[in-house]
Write a structure and sequence with these properties.
It comes from Pseudomonas denitrificans. This protein is of the alpha/beta class. It is 42% helix and 18% strand.
Length: 459
């Protein structure tokens, strides 16, 4: 691992910064990998999950990162230009310089997407990269390693595979920058390891992203989008709606509408190829533990299982979508990021109490507001802090390449995607070329200089 990093750093230092043409050529190689291996990608992800929609995987694991790479390629030349800055006497500008070698640690929920989305910004900035994919998706990780090795030299882009011990050693390497996507608990360990070498980090973590249904919302449309979004990847998305605030008088209507939505888009679940399995038995047991604890606490659980199927008889790890009616904050389902097809619903009287609740908890990666009350929408945006917001839908802000993507506080540090990714993985070098004239900082401090300084010190 260290030998690969040393080779990449030596290659970086021994040559001129990569030209725009050279960076585009590297991005084109990544684009070619996604296009040429799209079917293998879909099959590898399906093997890792046991069951996930091939169509969904083709969109999120192939098309989505492909579009990121293409948009990066199209705008790269403009991003690379020196940026003039205002200066009274002389010239000042910022040059964006490659950092060197960037480590990329990716999660299991979107194993291919996260690799290539990260690579878009890293390659655009002129860096080299070493990637550590998740051990929870061995088929996808092995495929990524083969794909990368087929078109990139090891001193350009390399892949390191292995379990938690390898991951820990990886994060302790003296990279020039480290991009980590994963759980907040692991993010703390990553930051601690990176600190030993003063490696700057971009941490894309998670948290409990709240969803608010305003009394001004199109209620049926809101429920449909929330349920459909929640069940993308069976809720195994860092931006999945984690709990929903519903006007207290509409709680029963939400449950009834959710049943209708599930029956329409997933008339069956257990053998439905469009309904994703939980990734493994460990996470299935974790989610079942949330339900068991809530049930013992007297929380009403509403299983959304249109065909009444028996999930105990399955060979995989699917879990029926389940609503939890107003669970208490002491329960783990309201403390941990759920990362599964469970959705707590919380009644509210006023928007003020919703805002107070959100602000009393760690800042989330996403927040979703459904409604057409402009004043209320502005209040929510002004009074809450989250990594990003989607209005009248869920999750979709992450797909807008011109927006920065990242968290705040416990949900992350730094952001990337598009121009923000290019800048995250670049060094913004300040350059100043002074104009000719007297230097107020340099002796001898003669009387004319004293008078000039005195004249400038004013209100």
């Amino acid at each position: 691992m260290r030998a690969v990093l040393d080779r990449q750093r030596a290659a970086h230092l021994s040559s001129e910064p990569l030209s725009a043409e050279r960076r585009i050529e590297l991005i084109d190689r990544a684009i070619g990998l996604l296009v040429d291996h799209q079917q293998a990608i879909v099959e590898a992800v399906r093997a890792d999950f046991g069951q996930r929609s091939d169509d969904f995987s083709r969109v999120v694991e192939v098309l989505s990162p492909l579009m990121s790479l293409k948009q990066t390629k199209a705008q790269l030349l403009g991003w690379m230009q020196p940026e003039p800055r205002h200066c009274e006497r002389g010239e000042a500008w910022v040059e964006y310089q490659p950092l060197g070698v960037v480590g990329i640690v990716t999660p299991w929920n979107f194993p291919v997407n996260m690799v290539f989305t990260g690579l878009a910004g890293v390659l655009a900035a002129g860096n080299r990269a070493i990637i550590k994919p998740s051990e929870f998706t061995p088929h996808s990780s092995a495929l990524i390693a083969r794909m990368i090795a087929s078109v990139f030299a090891e001193d350009e882009v390399a892949v390191i595979t292995g379990g938690p011990e390898v991951g820990q050693a990886f994060c302790a390497q003296p990279f020039d920058h480290l991009l980590f996507t994963g759980a907040t608990s692991i993010g703390r360990q990553v930051m601690r390891a990176a600190a030993e070498n003063l490696v700057p980090v971009t941490l894309e973590l998670g948290g409990k992203s709240p969803t608010i249904i305003s009394r001004s919302a199109d209620f049926q449309a809101a429920v449909q989008k929330i349920i459909a979004g929640k069940l993308h990847n069976a809720g195994q998305i860092c931006l999945a709606p984690d709990y929903v605030f519903v006007p207290e008088e509409s709680l029963d209507d939400f449950i009834a509408s959710a049943r209708e939505v599930i029956a329409r888009i997933y008339p069956s679940l257990r053998d439905n190829p469009d309904y994703t399995s939980v990734i493994n038995v460990r996470h299935q047991q974790r989610l079942q533990g949330y339900l068991d604890e809530a049930r013992e606490a007297g929380v009403e659980l509403i299983e959304l299982n249109p065909a009444g199927e028996d999930f105990a008889a399955q060979t995989g790890h699917k879990l029926a979508p389940t609503l939890l009616r107003n669970p208490g904050d002491e329960l783990k389902v309201m403390q941990d990021e759920i990362f599964g097809p469970l959705l707590p619903i919380k009644p509210y009287k006023t928007i003020a109490e919703v805002i107070d609740y959100i602000n009393a908890h760690p800042r989330p990666l996403g927040l979703y507001y459904f409604g057409v009350d402009a004043d209320e929408q502005a209040l929510v945006l002004r009074r809450t802090t989250s990594g990003g917001v989607t209005i009248n839908d869920v999750i979709k802000h992450v797909g807008v390449e011109s927006l920065p993507f990242g968290g705040v506080g416990p949900s992350g540090m730094g952001s990337y995607h598009g121009r923000d990714g290019f800048r995250a993985f670049s060094h913004a070098k300040a350059v100043f070329k002074p104009a000719d004239g007297p230097d107020l900082m340099r002796p001898p401090y003669v009387e004319p200089l004293r008078q000039a300084v005195t004249a400038m010190i004013c209100r």
